[in-house]
Amino acid sequence: MDTVVGYNEFKDKMRLYLVNLAKNIRQGKKTEQTIYVLLGPPGIGKSFISEKVAEGMERPLINVDLGGRKDTGILEGTSPSVKGAYPGRLCQGLSVGKHRGSIILLDEFEKVADEGLAMMLGYKVDLSDCILLCTANYADQVPDFVQNRAEMVNIELATYQQRVGYVMGMLGKKLKSDKDTAHYANQLTEEF
After folding, report:
1. Could you tell me which residue ranges the AAA+ ATPase domain spans (predicted)?
2. Does pTM surpass 0.70?
3. CB under 8 Å to 110, separation ≥6 — which residues?
4. What is the CATH number of the domain that holds 147?
């Protein structure tokens, strides 16, 4: 995650969680489950940093997009007695990934009705080895009962200097990767 620019509060919290997780595993203790709610305006990179966490931890990411939904049907699935029944997205992801330690991303979860969230949190699926990440635009859209159970993390917009550094780094890599442009990589400046 160190290659990712910004996201300092979230990276610090994830590092602490992972240090405690490793310590508990060594000592044979069970790690307390933590739900992280990533807060920030649309397009700031909440889903992006979730993907990077999964990539860095070499764990599968189960991405459940709840935007535009008013129920949790995508999570719960349908009854096996119904024609065309399907399992919920969490069960599908856990069975396909063959890895109980997945990272589950509930994207735009605040858009699901309060009743749906209450039903979802009472659903019996073993997620004890999973890391649960939820994204929301603003804290006031997150129901109180979720705020009481979750770690709220503000995802801040990268500063101008961080963005310039990122662009310069990416452009430099791109230039260096082509023998015809490699000599231009050392000539990059912020004024460029």
Report:
1. 32-156
2. yes
3. 134, 136, 137, 138, 141, 142, 143
4. 3.40.50.300
CA pair distance 38, 10, nearest whole angstrom: 8
> Do both 153 and 64 map to the same domain?
yes
In this structure, are 123 and 151 located in the same domain?
A: yes
Tell me the torsion sign for CA atoms 28, 93, 61, 113.
negative
**Burial of 174 per CB tally in 10 Å (0-12, 13-18, 19+):** exposed
> Per residue in 129-163, is it b (16+ CB within 10 Å) or e — as a string?
ebbbbbbbbeeeebeeebeeebeebebbebeeeee
Query: Same structural domain for residues 113 and 49?
Result: yes
pLDDT in tens, 138-174: 888 888 888 888 899 998 887 888 888 888 888 888 8
Calpha distance 156→37 (Å, rounded): 13
What 3-state class would DSSP assign to 11? helix
